[in-house]
Amino acid sequence: ALPICDAAELSRLGIGVAAINANDAVQYPEDSFDAMKVFARRHGIVFPYLYDESQAVARAYDAVCTPDFFGFDAGLGLQYRGRLDSSGRLPAAPDVRRDLVEAMRRVAETGHGPQDQIASMGCSIKWRHAWD
Questions:
Q1: DSSP conformational letter for 46
Q2: Cα(76)–Cα(84) distance, rounded to whole angstroms?
Q3: What is the domain partition of the chain in residue ranges?
Q4: Is 85 helix (H, G, I), strand (E, B) or coil?
Q5: Which residues, other chains included, contact 73 with Cβ-Cβ below 8 Å and sequence gap of 6+?
Q6: SS3 label, residue 39
Q7: Alpha-carbon Rg of the chain, whole angstroms?
Q8: CA torsion, points 47, 84, 104, 38, in degrees to nearest 10?
Q9: Is 126 buried (19+), middle (13-18) or exposed (0-12) by CB count in 10 A?
Q10: Distance between CA atoms of residues 59 and 120, nearest Å
Q11: Is the CA virtual torsion 30, 50, 108, 68 positive or negative?
């Protein structure tokens, strides 16, 4: 999940933050909307945490894993698609490279994301079956 301090820093730069869960809650009840609300309260999430029940948003942006980060400019042009930071699955060290924050800082300053972007890694999205 996006650390609260990163969300606050992006907010100070005038960048909005939202999280979207597209996992199939029928097959994975731990990803249901009710479970999301508990998770958000427990972790102090201060930005919108949305549920993409139809998975249309995830498909429209070719999201493949959780988490998968997308950064847009003021005109909603995609400027960043990559990882949160360089920590991988480990807890982030104080000196971790914060790819998402640095990319969005660059977007705020120049209007463009970085050329070099490292893809997110995580569990695959739990897709609904076509017949659901």
A1: -
A2: 19
A3: 4-124
A4: coil
A5: 79, 107, 111, 112, 113
A6: helix
A7: 15
A8: 0
A9: middle
A10: 16
A11: positive
What's the sign of the alpha-carbon dihedral 31, 36, 42, 48? positive
Report whether 21 contacts 53 (CB < 8 A). Answer: no
Give the domain 4-124 fold.
Glutaredoxin (3.40.30)
Please give the single-letter amino acid code of residue 67: P
Reported as a single tens digit per residue, the pLDDT across 60-112 is: 999 999 989 999 999 999 999 999 888 877 777 778 889 999 999 999 999 99
Residues 21 and 52 sit within 8 Å (Cβ to Cβ) = yes
Task: Give the number of other Cβ atoms within 10 Å of residue 28's Cβ.
Answer: 11
Whole-model pTM over 0.70 = yes
Question: Residue 18 and residue 90: Cα distance in Å, rounded?
Answer: 23
- Taking the C-alpha atoms of residue 50 and residue 22, their distance in angstroms, rounded to an integer, is 9
Q: Which ranges of 1-132 would DSSP assign to H, the alpha helix?
A: 4-12, 33-43, 56-60, 99-110
